[in-house]
Amino acid sequence: MYQYSRAIYRSIKDLIDPYADWDEQIESRRAVLVSCEQTMERLAKDPLYFSKPDRALFQDIRRYFPITAQAQVAWAVQAGVTAATRFIEEQIEAGALDGGIARCRATTRKGKPCQRTPLPDRDYCPSHQHLEAKAAA
Ligand SMILES: [Zn+2]
User: Fold this and answer.
1) 66-124 pLDDT, tens per residue?
2) For residues 36 and 48, what is the distance between their CA atoms, to the nearest angstrom?
3) DSSP label at residue 119
4) Of 10, 33, 102, 134, which residue is most buried, by most CB within 10 angstroms?
């Protein structure tokens, strides 16, 4: 996922408030990069349960950019996150993320089969383990 967070960062780093003093710009760049990386990590870990990751990232970093650059930043974030999401979906479909091992037996709120790996010796993932408890009772 590293390449996606880097790509987003590269596309917006030069838009960071150019009137702030240099130290502040360095700080802002670091904060923006960390936010990009954290968003991508969370997306890779929990793609089905992270809703609107592009908006979440934009909310995190928008304060580092001048008003005049906000639309461009929002667009770049959306494009970058969309590319990353598509990549993750392809990985899931190819079974690459869980090695094609067992899948959780639950259905997500969107009506799709849950793609997460079940807990060891269980039929459900951590988010759905309550379903198993119910079935056993
Ligand atoms: Zn599940």
Assistant:
1) 999 999 999 999 999 999 999 888 877 776 655 445 778 888 888 888 888 888 778 88
2) 18
3) P
4) 33
For ligand 1, the distance from its centroid to the CA atom of residue 49, given in whole angstroms, is 10
Centre of ligand 1 to C-alpha 72, Å, is 36
Distance set, CA 73 to CA 23, 42, 53, 119, 122 (Å): 21, 20, 14, 39, 43
d(CA 122, CA 134): 13
Distance of CA 105 from the midpoint of ligand 1 (Å) = 6
Q: 119 alpha carbon to ligand 1 midpoint, in Å?
A: 9
DSSP result, 24-39: HHHHHHHHHHHHHHHH
Local structure of residue 125 (DSSP, 8 states): -
Rounded to two decimals, the pTM is 0.68
Q: Residue 89 C-alpha to ligand 1 middle, in angstroms?
A: 16
CA 90–ligand 1 middle distance (angstroms) = 19
In the chain, alpha helices (H): 2-12, 22-45, 53-61, 70-93, 129-136
